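Table S2 (continued). Query chain:
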Amino acid sequence: MSASVTVIVPVYRGIYDLTRCLESVVAHAARTEIDFELVLIDDATPEPAVRTYLEGFRTRGLPFPVTLLTNPENLGFVGTVNRGLRRATGDVVILNADTAVTAGWLDRLRAAASAGPDVATVTPVTSSGSICTLPQTVIHAFELEGPNPQIEECAEFVSATSLRLLPEVITGVGFCMYITRRALDLCGLLDEETFGKGYGEEVDFCLRATRLGLRHLVDDSTFVFHRGGGSFGDQQSEGLARGSRLLDERYPYFRPTNMRERAQDPSRVSFAALELGLYERDSTRPHILHIMHSAPGDTGGTEKFLDALMRSLESEFDFSVFFPVPSGFALETHWWHPDRAKRIERFLLPGGPRHVTRIDDEMAGAALQMALDLFTFDAVHVHNLIGHSIAPLAVLADFDGPVLCSVHDLFLACPNFSLLYRKVEPCGIPDDLTTCDRCLAVVAEAPMPGSPMITNLSRSYLNEFRSTVAARLDTVDHWVFASQNAADYFMRVYEPDPNRMEVIEHGSVIRLGRRASQPDRALIYDEPLRVAFVGMGWAKKGLDAVNSLADAFSDSSIEIHHFGDLKQAASPDLHTHGAYDNEFLPELLRRAGIQIVLLPGPYAETFGIVMSEALATGLPVIGAYYGALGERIRACGAGWTIDPMDHDGIRALIERLDRARDEVMRTTRQVLEVKLETVGDTSYRYAALYRNGTRHADGSDEQTAGTSGLAATGAERQ
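Corresponding output:
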């Protein structure tokens, strides 16, 4: 009775590699469930030690059949393998002599080959094998490139950690390639006439199989060690160049397709899981997935808030952050171990370009599902879906734990999330959608920096966008707003369950130092009035108004300053200080002698982190009468509200304050009475939602700490 699998080992030279290879086959044969035969082919080896070892191995009385064939002259790899293929009747494994197999290798390869009738080849992961090569971190961890590689330990790790995704590739890799009988029957032998003694023949075989509708898989759960270049002499570079040239002539599409495959890397999710497996997470710690529009550590307010939130809760929670990048999506892990440093790793997941063009982007949804499949998450916290489309809300509908959504901006209410016409004129989410027609058309022509590249926008697009969000509102268990005003804007468009809504003010992202108990009288009464515009220097934050003020006050004692990056040209009369670190902003404002912080942006803020930094410095604020700034200024008497579009009115207010220093003094005293909190002070409320917000089967929520504190008052109309 013939064996169901024939393992063909062509041998030329390298007694050490050969011994390790064949002894590894013997070591794991007893636990191999399928029957196999081993065919050794001596390709006229020039090393007597190799011949002697092969003869002795053949006569050892092993628990599987061993056949030794000897070529009278050197045929090369292709001819030698074909000799073995001609005598095989079932599936075949081509196994290089500079490999070492591991526990369960053949059974798992056979199982992968049985994944479907259209499977042609299966290749395991390895230490040196083209696209099947393990990540360098794994290779280094198990010293696979050193003199004493930890082969069995690596195999056990791969088997235990693998996601078993069986990634599909263009071709198998010849160091250890399992070939199904169906593929052999359809494709025949390796092309000995074209490829001579070797290099490129397995690629040619696989591409012929692909033309017949067959597939090639990587078994991401099986590790076979491969030293590389040890079996066939010193002509490797010459052979590779010749094989590559022949493949280009026969398959002109192969090289660009291969380059694209390497760039996309079908095994990257499998390999990401292995890399993360090197740093085993403490499974007793809750694990929270944050969904962001940009990478942790970027300069925006949402990024700073998330960083502060994770730092505040890292003693109890582990975090991962999922966000778009130009070539797809990334997952960044933040795992904290009390006995060692925090572990931060970043892994690339499949996806399209960052600029999402559809309401439901399939690749974005698939990438999020991959992230959810990689690990067990206890809760998901959505911060921003720019760059994701609305697809994540559909994916998260099946998530078992609580889903939170912090409304940091109003993207879910309108794709033009700044709510600004031509970047400067606020719309306030109008009831009359004819206003949206002109606005959305402009967005399509010139999207704002950082926003998704959306084209062909129209009122019908906006209606479809909003109806899609409305249909998925119940995916979110807890809608979290940083201000009542942000909730009011959101409720102009949607009607979420009031029991799922609550206000949690962000708090300051910087540490709060001790403020003076009394205002600096000399600074307020004896110094020129210095007003500081703080934040990104561009139109949506009010740079146009600031430039106008700087020009208007150029011949007066009033000084207009700017702290932050400039994205557009500044007036020559604007005192610019450049980018700043948030932690040092209070000290920078003090050193510059600033008495008032100006936030003249027409953008409707949902909270206003810069305002918190100003209050932490003890400075009153001038800000828009609408949005969160107006709400906060009125609530605590911490400054003055303006119409950002009324540049003359802003100028008149500053001139009045220059004359009325008593009013500046009185308001500064009021600021010093304001009770301030940091993100850390409010983080316990998020922790309660992460821990206790488990979703019931009927879609209702368990009771969580705190109450919503929302009142549907309706935001101010602009």
